[in-house]
Structure formats: C-alpha cells, structure tokens
Design goal:
Layout lengths: L8 E5 L2 H11 L3 E5 L2 E5 L5 E6 L10 E7 L2 H10 L16 E2 L6 E5 L5 E6 L1
C-alpha cells in the first residue's frame, strides 16, 4: 500500500536555474536545490518537486499551483510590478486578468517555462 502521508506533486520546467530565480525572487517561495532538481517549500512542510526536461518540456495544460492571497487585486498589482504578465481569457477575465464571473476571484499567469499558476482570493 502507498503511504499517502508522504506523497508530493511535481512538474517539469525547461531550465532549473530560470525556474529557481522566478519562484524564489519573483514569487518569494522558499526553494532548495538538490541533484539538479528544485523543491518548492510550501506551508506545513509540503514540498513540490520541480524537475528539468530541457527542450522536451511542454507546459502543463492546467494550473499546476494555486497561491491563496488575501486580495487578488493587490497580488496582481504586486506581481505585475515585478514583470509578471497575467493571462486573459475571452469573456472570462477583465483587463487586469482577474476572473470576476463567479467563484473566488482568481488570476492566472505562467512561470518562465509556460506552466500555469494562479493567485486566488480566499
């Protein structure tokens, strides 16, 4: 039987050093590196593995990480000031890239490898 208490998720990137700079310096996530892979250290000691695929990398077609924030508008403004561009979905997001059409306020953006992330107001 598997030990679900030690399970973790992961996703690939094109370039580990580029990903490390983005997650650490832009998003402020604690990051460690070991054997050419990263671990993103999230709350409660939870870690997410980030591994290199180089030119074979294809961005995930779904949101790989969601970051809860007290205010989506403040988070979007702060990240945009750091050079992050938000995704716009026709008929769904406003000019800032925020979905205000039901459910929690949410805005999507990508890491340097094209993986989709979000900030959502909880």
């Amino acid at each position: 039987m598997v030990d679900a208490t030690k399970a973790f998720s992961g996703f690939s990137v094109r370039d580990v050093s580029e990903a490390k700079a983005f997650y650490q310096d832009v998003l402020g996530v604690e990051v460690s590196e070991d054997h050419g892979m990263l671990t993103l250290h999230l709350g409660d000691g939870h870690g997410v593995l980030v591994y290199p695929k180089g030119p074979a990398h294809e961005p995930a077609s779904f949101t790989v990480l969601n970051f809860p924030v007290p205010s989506v508008d403040d988070a979007v403004d702060e990240l945009a000031a750091k050079g992050v561009s938000f995704l716009h979905y026709e008929g769904m997001t406003d000019e800032k890239g925020v979905n205000r059409r039901g459910g929690p306020l949410i805005a999507w953006f990508t890491d340097p490898s094209g993986n989709v992330l979000s900030v959502l107001e909880l």
